Amino acid sequence: MRLQAAELFEQMIKPVEVARQLRVSRKSAYQWHQLWRDGGVAALTSRGPSGSRCRLSPYCLASCFHEARCPTGDQVSEKCL
Can you give the pTM of this predicted structure? Predict the structure, then answer.
């Protein structure tokens, strides 16, 4: 979507109109426009998912997936608590 915004910015379309066409907030469109103006299309490429990484151990994740798939009342290991 940001790359579509870059194409529109290259056509000199204002951020407000970009926001309307792409159905995003005006704030996002203005932020993208600033990035595009400062760094071009490369500045708008995705840097992967945002947010913090999962802090659960592989063992705890496996236990959670097991519980989600097999809610038979088995106890979750105390190691995860």
Answer: 0.59
